[in-house]
Amino acid sequence: MYKNRIIEIATYVVVGAAIWVVSPALGKLLDSLYFHYPSLFADSVAVLLTGVFLIILGMILVVWTITLFKTRGKGTPNPKLPPRNFIIDGPYRISRNPMALGGLLVLLGESAIYYSPSLLGLSLAYGVVIYLNAKYVEEPELKKRFGDQYDEYLKKVPRLFPNPFKSHK
C-alpha cells in the first residue's frame, strides 16, 4: 500500500511539474530562440483573461476527474494503479478523456498567458499524443477490462472534445 501511495504522489508531482514548469519554460526558451518576444506575458488583458479562463476550466476538469478516480473508481490516474470501477459520471458523460482535455486546456491557457507560439505548438502536439494514446492504447485496454459496458460508452461519448449539440443525460 505504501508503494502505491508513493507511485500516486510521484505521478501528481511529475505531471504537475511537466504542465506548470517544464512546458512553459521550454515554450519561452524556444520563443526566445526563434521569435524574440520581449515580454514574459501577453500584453492584452483579453488574451490574459482567456488564458486564465482556460486554466481554471482545465484545472476543474483535472481535479474533478482525479476525485472521481479515487472515490468512485477506487484507483488513480497512473496506468499502474488504474480505477477498478468503470466511471461514467460527471465529465465522463461528455468526454471519454476529460482529464487529458483538462491538461490540454491548461497548456492552451498557459500559451495565451505567456503569449507563446512555441507553447501553443507544444500544446497542439500534446493534443495529438493524447488523442492517439486514447485511441490505440487506453481504449483497447478499457475494452478488455470493462467489455460490453465500455463498447456502449464508446458509441455514446466522444473521445476528447464534447459535442455541444448532443444531449448528455
Structure in words:
The chain is mainly alpha-helical. It has one domain (2-156). 69% of the residues lie in helices and 0% in strands. The longest helix has 40 residues, at 117-156. The model has no long low-confidence stretch (mean pLDDT 87).
Key traits:
single chain; about 170 residues; mainly alpha; 4 helices
In short:
By secondary structure, this protein is mainly α.
- The count of DSSP E runs of length 2 or more, i.e. the number of strands, is 0
Low-confidence stretches: none
Roughly how many Å apart are the termini? 37 Å
Round the mean pLDDT to the nearest integer and report it: 87
Taking the sheet with the most strands, its summary is: none
Helix-strand pattern? HHHH
Strand content: under 5%
- Total domain count: 1
Describe the global form. Answer: globular
Number of helices: 4
**Class of secondary structure makeup:** mainly alpha
The amount of helix comes to 55-70%
Please give the oligomerization state of what you see. Answer: single chain
Rg result: 17 Å
